[in-house]
């Protein structure tokens, strides 16, 4: 019995030893760097933080690509005094990175990571309701609701980072307090860009950024003229001129009005009868025009429509392939009561799709011009790169 | 009284229907051409870029209807009396162009005062 008690005690001790050994293993292995403390434990970007610990590596072996410190995933720059890089085996001095947020500080040496140590970055309230629209083939308009911190004395303004998806951000565009719109220029149509908007506070020369509010968007071509450099029109059914519209004629480089004899190239069209003005997908128009020539292209219209004064008034908070229900459809414009221009989201060239927004101009009515040759004037925002669901 | 209102409504509807079904003025159909090329024995066919360049230099851009012996060359003018060559040049890439307007013959020249120029492709 005595022997049994001794054995049980021995086993318990072994188990405890193994347990404590295992706990050490979860924080770091024998070769991993170890953080014992950081000072200070909170601060704004630019603040110099001292990290004390061990196994950070010999200063002579310091290499920028293999010796790193992260603040919640954002890489920090190592402090330099004179010409001496402040990286030692038991101490590192770093600057809190510009985009740092509250989270763990981690040291990484040759791919081995240390334990994490919490560092708190003061919070700035971000912007909300960020929306975008394609201004033209080289620019994107943004708008947002101001940060709730804007009334604070230390509120500096807004920083916007613009960079293609898949690439890293460059220098910010700095906007003053009170700004809630911005037009990003010199962009490339068909390239999808990240637009990260940060609210910024100034703490004695150190800038503190809010969490980013992001939207992805791409510039798209804006057309108010057709291939003949005239206003874009769809004529009433009784007219000898075309009632159909090709959103983008590649050879002409602009939208093109087409007659029913060129029906195979229609994306959209109108059919007028009495007071009814049917506007819709080519397939729906083919069903109405007995002389429609050729197979109708697949062109889908979103069930969402916007009644606006200008194409510039239509902003989105997400890509056009998100949150929209597309189908080949038609609508009787005479049933609309808003007495305003109306914008439809459209996509054509299945299955990769080119996205567009089409504005039908209301000028006392949708049909204008002389009787017999009345027309609907149209403006188009068209994304020439297929598979990129951003236009207008 | 009701009968009078009913008649007035009927007349109104009839008037409205008549207005909507007003026959559309028919355009003259043709093509844009370079007069210089026609004079030199060519077909006059020209693309938009070239037509625009010639029009800028003052070289006449004209409108041809019909084919062969029935072909007619029209000098197109805008309603304000200015020569419409530059405007016409924009339609040079179109297969068929329609012009609504008034035709005049002045000293043997076919003149077309254009109200509307439009593609008829």
Percent of sequence in beta strands of chain A: 35-45%
- What proportion of the residues of chain B form beta strands (DSSP E)? 25-35%
Poorly predicted segments of chain A: 10-27
Largest two-chain interface: A-B, 25 and 23 residues
Explain what you see:
The complex is a heterodimer of chains A (392) and B (121). Chain A folds into 4 domains: 1-30; 34-119, Immunoglobulins (Immunoglobulin-like), CATH 2.60.40; 128-217, Sandwich (Immunoglobulin-like); 221-382, no CATH class. Chain A has 392 residues and is mostly beta strands. Chain A is built from 2 helices and 31 strands. Helix content of chain A is 8%, strand content 42%. Chain B is α+β, with helices and mostly antiparallel strands and 121 residues long. Chain B has one domain (25-119). In chain B, 31% of the residues lie in helices and 33% in strands. Chain B is built from 4 helices and 5 strands, in the order αβααββαββ. The longest helix of chain B is centred in the first third of the chain and has 19 residues, at 2-20. Chains A and B meet through strand 23 of A and helix 1 and strand 5 of B.
Reconstruct the topology from this structure.
The complex is a heterodimer of chains A (392) and B (121).
Chain A: H1 2-27, E1 34-39, E2 48-54, E3 67-71, E4 74-75, E5 77-78, E6 80-81, E7 84-85, E8 91-95, E9 103-109, E10 112-113, E11 117-119, E12 128-136, E13 139-145, E14 155-164, E15 173-176, E16 181-184, E17 193-203, E18 206-209, E19 213-217, E20 221-223, E21 232-235, E22 244-249, E23 254-258, E24 268-273, E25 276-281, H2 282-288, E26 299-308, E27 326-327, E28 330-332, E29 341-348, E30 354-360, E31 375-382
Chain B: H1 2-20, E1 28-34, H2 35-39, H3 48-56, E2 61-65, E3 72-78, H4 85-89, E4 97-106, E5 109-119
Parallel strand pairs in B: 3-5
Antiparallel strand pairs in B: 1-2, 1-4, 2-3, 4-5
